[in-house]
Amino acid sequence: MSRREELTARLAADVHYDIAIVGGGASGLGVALDAAARGFKVVLVESHDFAKGTSSRATKLVHGGVRYLAQGNIGLVREALHERTTLLENAPHLAQPLAFVVPAYRWWELPFYASGLKLYDVLAGKAGLGRTEILSAAETLALLPAAKSQQLKGGVKYWDGQFNDARLALALARSAAAQGALLVNYMSASDLFYDGGQVAGLVCHDALTGQPYRIRSRCVVNATGVWVDELRQKDGEANSGDGRRPVKPMVAPSQGVHIVVDRDFLGGDSALMVPKTSDGRVLFAVPWLGKVILGTTDTPRHDLAREPLAFKEEVDFILNESARYLTRPPQRSDVRSIWVGLRPLVKPQDDEGDNTKGLSREHTVLVSRSGLVTVTGGKWTTYRAMAEDVLDTCMQKSLLGRKPGGVTVHLKLLGAGASGTQAVSICQPPGAHSYGDEQALLATLPGADVVLCPGLTEAMVRFAARYEYAIKVEDVLARRSRLLFLDARLAATLAQRVGEVLQQETGLDPEVAAFSGLARQYFELP
User: How far apart (Å, rounded) are the C-alpha atoms in residues 31 and 173?
Assistant: First the structure.
């Protein structure tokens, strides 16, 4: 029996779950791990692949949120700073501290930025990663070799974290499975069913075969990110009597664009942070897996495309702003990959505007009259705290029995090892180091010495199929490996070979042609 057949057979079994979760991104996977670690019987379904949406398209920062500090949101920053440290400790093979430098080209910027970032240190307290320092111009250029030196007065260095978002999502999924949860990707929750007016479970369909499944559960959590309103609407219609009850949307999507260029455009292992661009936003240039990420934007978006495309003005904005700070400004021809994520910003119920910068970055948990629990908003850094909040709400509403929390504070994710794992800087090119203490297992698989490209072996493709739920070429090249996000053209050249290995492992169609079309979207700029 194949891995997929084993998962769907378990899904077809007559089991009454404590909690069924819809959505395999940061929020849903965090809830699955926490619930399973507490001893609940857990099932999670994801309509596409784990972290296919926003959760693989972050700016790769584990951070308190400097811009939230500027907005005066002290509570959000304090929580995020403490959760930042927890994440770094529980997944040292996927998340590490990173130094950020704010270059100052006017004298007043040095004391101004330093005072704000020292408050960042104070809020972090014992959870701090390093001390904020004022740098001379020479010290700034030593950390940011490619920054413009003309008129440079100095800089401010502070510390945050960086991570591999999609691989962290997989670590959460696999850690939840190790705790007894059943997780199935490519399984779409098409409807809810009810008992006495209360949600009693899900109707699902296998996206690969069309096979329907009926999942009974005491509690259902809608954790589908920017798409939460779809399931909320079905719940509202089912409980309206005439099927026409409108549900006011919770989410106002905001689009964030990221551009990837070669490492030498920045140089060094420190990130550059611009706290206020020409339009008042924050801009980062972040070293990541041997490349540099430039971004991000914050643009209202009214559709919910699974593969949103960047607007031309967003690309121009990032390149133009980067040119103000980098000695060699990146050109369109220098872009290796471009990706877009949709942030699920929580919309005030009386807000009809399009100013996403003013919308809440905090998460919201909402329980409908029928008992459907919806969680949306928030950010990767606080995924664990969000999960605890969701389960606390479920217990307060008597949708789940009482079980003590705090079980994930010191729970090492798969690959971290019982006593932690020696971390390799995530600034460096990809390789076996992201597998943590599973590197020995990886080395035993066929093709361990067959290099498909730097940082990707045939054994890694087999590992993805056998242990990491991978089915399609996109699953491997976009999320198990991050090659699509690092160099889309190179990823396209490997699609056929990766597809052949996947088909050997799974017996399923790896959809090579579909990936080739997708890759073009990642290297063709608007």
Answer: 10
Residue 443 is encoded by which pair of tokens?
Answer: 């080395």
Of residues 469, 474, 461, the one with CA closest to residue 504: 461
Q: Let me know if 24 is exposed, middle or buried by CB neighbors in 10 A (0-12, 13-18, 19+).
A: buried
70 phi, psi to nearest 5 deg: -65, -30
**Contact between 485 and 336 (Cβ < 8 Å):** no
Helix (H, G, I), strand (E, B) or coil at 365: strand
In the chain, the domains with their CATH numbers are 3-54+167-249+359-396 (3.50.50.60), 55-163+252-346 (3.30.9.10), 432-523 (no CATH)
CA atoms of 48 and 495, how far apart (whole Å): 19
Give the SS3 label for residue 523. helix
Q: What tens digit of pLDDT does each residue of 429-463 get?
A: 888 889 999 999 999 999 999 999 999 999 999 99
Cα 61 to the chain's mean position, in Å? 10
pLDDT (tens digit per residue) in 137-177: 999 999 999 999 999 999 999 999 999 999 999 999 999 99
Q: Alpha-carbon distance 153 to 140, whole Å?
A: 9
140 contacts: CB under 8 Å, gap ≥ 6: 101, 103, 104, 147, 152, 154, 155
Helical pair 488-506 and 458-467, crossing angle rounded to 10 deg: 60
Residue 357 — pLDDT band, cuts 50, 70, 90?
A: very low
Contacts of 419 (CB under 8 A, 6+ apart): none
Query: Contact at 8 Å (CB) between 437 and 417?
Result: yes
* pTM > 0.85: yes
Instruction: Give the pairing type, strands 42-45 and 182-184.
Output: parallel
Q: Report the half-sphere exposure of 148 (CA within 13 A, side-chain side).
A: 13
DSSP classification of residue 147: B
Contact (CB, 8 A) for 27 and 378: yes
